[in-house]
């Protein structure tokens, strides 16, 4: 393979999860995203790279930020875009996922960006349809483009992530962002620690090669970057914490905790933020925070993924 990124290709036809791509794939995506970030900061933000490509955004779960980010990325690349929501669709009438997608593919779709509540839905689909599949989130399993944009945002501030200390704090148990971040950061050589109450960590989480802590203050003192996750109450069928107030007291990232540190750390959050619960506004909006950078970088990273997957051998 050529060393020139212009001629490199991903090792896979789909982006089903970070677990299934290589470190070289990740680095190629991040390098390509840098080029596209220059594009979206120009007066004319559109390029004709996917002018002949039709992309269907299939969202079987509610989404605002991810859906808008993908749609903007697609339009910046001049793709034709079809948006589908399961609300009010034939899915509500009992149509299967495969029926729905095959009906859409009969309209000559080249690529599918899908969010689905069932882990593994994208793997199932990739075995039955002949188009590129991008995972925009599957249940509590993976959210690969979020992990890629998080890694890109960290690299902008820190350079290489090899040996850097990254803490993922909060509701690890129900977070697809956490799992994708762990896979991505480990492949880039970072040291990863998860921190939260025992009830919000998977029992075997250390088998992924991460450190485990229940001490928020010690973890903040340890890390270079704190990626703070929200409490996902909508994915919890029982209560895993006594109360949000209790959680905020023991695990919330607030100004008092940050001010006690003897160094400056980077604060991240994949959104949406529960302000005053996992993080306070004075931290989320502080100079430590790169949360808005993450949003901007999301468009460039998704442009890179779409562009690289659409390239023909």
Q: Explain this structure to me?
A:
The strands form two sheets. Strands 7-6-5-8-9 form a five-stranded parallel sheet, sandwiched between helices. It is 37% helix and 14% strand. It starts with 22 loop residues before the first helix and ends with a helix. It has two domains: 5-142 and 295-310, 3-Layer(aba) Sandwich (Rossmann fold), CATH 3.40.50.1370; 144-291, Aspartate/ornithine carbamoyltransferase (Rossmann fold, 3-Layer(aba) Sandwich), CATH 3.40.50. It has helices spanning 23-40, 65-76, 97-105, 121-126, 144-158, 176-187, 216-222, 244-251, 255-260, 281-284, 291-310; strands at 54-59, 80-85, 111-116, 132-138, 165-169, 191-195, 211-213, 225-228, 266-268. It contains eleven helices and nine strands. Helix 5 packs across helix 11. By secondary structure, it is of the alpha/beta class. The model is unreliable at 234-238 (pLDDT under 50).
